[in-house]
Structures are given as structure tokens and as C-alpha cells.
Design goal:
Elements lengths: L3 E10 L2 E11 L4 E5 L6 H8 L7 E6 L2 E5 L3 H4 L4 H5 L2 E4 L11 H13 L5 H22 L15 H14 L4 E5 L7 H16 L4 E4 L3 H7 L2 E6 L2 E6 L1 H6 L4 H15 L1
Parallel strand pairs: 3-8, 3-9, 6-7, 7-8
Antiparallel strand pairs: 1-2, 1-4, 4-5, 9-10
Helix pairs in contact: 4-5, 4-6, 5-6, 6-7
This protein binds adenosine-5'-diphosphate and magnesium ion (MG).
The site of magnesium ion (MG) has 3 residues, from helix 1.
């Protein structure tokens, strides 16, 4: 059973259909890369998965549970939206760390807030919070930041801040970790640093959806690649097909432009 099944997702803004009938599935431990020009709908698709936008049509199924069905009004409501969102971790291009909190605090913050709702919180508060801190330290260590726990965002490089953002998403133990152009705001050196961390996550079989412009990286880490253009899936398949041997004219043209720019 796939960990994620996305079926027939469409989304309009006004009269513009930004997503048209997008479907894909993801096996546990697999990574999907989404590529496509600016404005093709990649961010909107991730936002739909996180219920920051409500799709007009389609279904989303996680671990065999249909968590969203556009034809069901209850499913479209805010009810249970937090639990639904917790299936997905999100890492944005702009790291969005809280400037007033340290790296460690940025990673523990959401977990500590959620823990307050646990029925055993009052009696177990100290133990629960200690566990959240221990877990956060382990994750920060795994992204190479064990020496930066007490640093504030302004004391960290862009690459380090993005690694904190990755740790923050991992700390809530999502089923699927989503990245929206995680290195687009970084210079080449820091880009390499962040891509290495994501690659290690792939090696450790973290299930991920990665919107990226880094084609050689996408080729290395993804089980499948989805090429979107103007809200439609033009090509979907293994990287050896979509990136190395595209079948569709639109994919070929996109990649030609991409590699031309890269060589300049
Ligand atoms: N909240 C919104 N309201 C209206 N139009 C939007 C909104 N968000 C995105 N769009 C439009 O949807 C299209 C796809 O945008 P986006 O998903 O950000 O593409 P990408 O991430 O591939 O660059 C663009 O034309 C964009 O202007
Ligand atoms: Mg985008």
C-alpha cells in the first residue's frame, strides 16, 4: 500500500485553473521530485497537500486512510485539519525561523505546544518536555548542527538556518516531508550543504516530496519525477525517463532550457 495517494487534484483561483487533475502515489521511503517552470503550480500542489489550500476536486489518501475527499463537505471543513496537516512536514525556500528563538527552541516549539493537549500533560509535563528536547537534539545532530543548539537564526548561515527548518519539520515525525525549492535562496556552496542533508534523509528512507530546480540532485534521490507545466502533469516516471530520456516535447524543451542556462 502506498503511503500517499493523490488522485485527480484540481484547483482554481478565480477563473484560472492552476492545477488540473494531478495524480501520483508515493511508496514509504521513496522520494518524488516535482519539476517545472515558475508558475506551473508546484507550490499550489504542496499547499493543497498541507490543506493551506482546499482542492476543488480529488482525494488524498495517507496510509490507506482517505484524509481528504473534495466531494465531501465535511472533509472540506476545518474539522480535524491539524491532524491532517501533521501527516506532512513542510520546508520552504525562506526558512521562516523565529528570530527570537534559538535553533533548539525553533525545533522544540511546535512539539511542546502540541504536547499541552495530551491528557497526561499535567502529570508528565517534565518528562514529556525532556523527551521533546532529547529528540530535537538528536535530529539537530543528524543534520550536523549539534554545535549550534543555542545559536539564534541571525548567528547562523542560510544553509544552517535551512537545516534547522528541516530539523523542525522532522521533529513532528511527519509521514511525508515536503520541500518547496529548499535551496533557491542559497548560494552554490550552501546549496550543496543542504542538498547533502536531504540526500542523507533519502538514504535513511525518509519519504519526501521535493520541488526543486536541481536536476542532477532530483535524478539522484527520486524514485519518480513529476514534470508539471501550466498545472498539468506532462510527464511522470522514474528520473531515467523524465530527466534523462524525456518522451514529451514539453519536457524536452524545459530541460533544454534548463541545461542551457546551467552551462552559461
Ligand atoms: N492565492 C492565489 N491566488 C491567486 N492566484 C494564485 C494564488 N497562488 C498562486 N496563484 C497563481 O497560480 C499559478 C501557480 O503558482 P504556483 O503554484 O506558485 O507555481 P510555482 O510554484 O510552480 O511557481 C500562478 O499563476 C500564480 O500566480
Ligand atoms: Mg513555487
Amino acid at each position: 500500500m502506498p503511503i500517499l495517494e493523490v488522485r485527480n487534484i484540481s484547483k482554481c483561483f478565480g477563473n484560472t485553473e492552476v492545477l488540473k487533475d494531478i495524480s501520483f502515489s508515493l511508496e514509504k521511503g521513496e522520494s518524488l521530485s516535482i519539476i517545472g517552470s515558475s508558475g506551473s503550480g508546484k507550490t499550489t500542489l504542496l499547499r493543497c497537500l498541507n490543506f493551506l489550500e482546499v482542492p476543488d476536486t480529488g482525494t488524498i489518501t495517507v496510509n490507506g486512510n482517505m484524509i481528504f475527499d473534495a466531494s465531501d463537505p465535511e472533509s472540506r471543513s476545518e474539522k480535524g485539519i491539524r491532524e491532517k496537516r501533521l501527516h506532512f512536514g513542510l520546508v520552504f525556500q525562506s526558512f521562516n525561523l523565529f528570530p527570537q528563538y534559538t535553533a533548539l527552541e525553533n525545533v522544540t516549539l511546535a512539539g511542546m505546544l502540541l504536547a499541552k493537549e495530551r491528557p497526561d500533560y499535567k502529570s508528565e509535563k517534565i518528562r514529556i518536555n525532556e523527551q521533546i528536547i532529547t529528540n530535537a537534539k538528536e535530529i539537530l545532530d543528524s543534520v550536523g548542527l549539534s554545535g549550534k543548539l543555542d545559536n539564534y537564526p541571525h548567528q547562523l548561515s542560510g544553509g544552517q538556518q535551512q537545516r534547522v527548518a528541516i530539523a523542525r519539520a522532522l521533529a513532528l515525525n511527519p509521514d511525508i516531508l515536503c520541500f518547496d525549492e529548499p535551496t533557491s535562496a542559497l548560494d552554490p556552496e550552501l546549496t550543496g550543504e543542504v542538498l547533502r542533508v536531504i540526500r542523507e534523509l533519502a538514504d535513511r528512507k525518509t519519504t519526501m516530496i521535493i520541488v526543486t530546480h536541481e536536476m542532477s540532485f532530483a535524478r539522484m534521490v527520486s524514485g519518480n519525477v513529476l514534470f508539471m507545466d501550466e498545472g498539468v502533469t506532462v510527464e511522470y516516471g522514474p528520473p531515467e525517463q523524465v530527466i534523462a530520456h524525456p518522451r514529451e516535447e514539453r519536457t524536452k524543451r524545459f530541460l533544454e532550457r534548463y541545461f542551457e542556462n546551467e552551462n552559461n
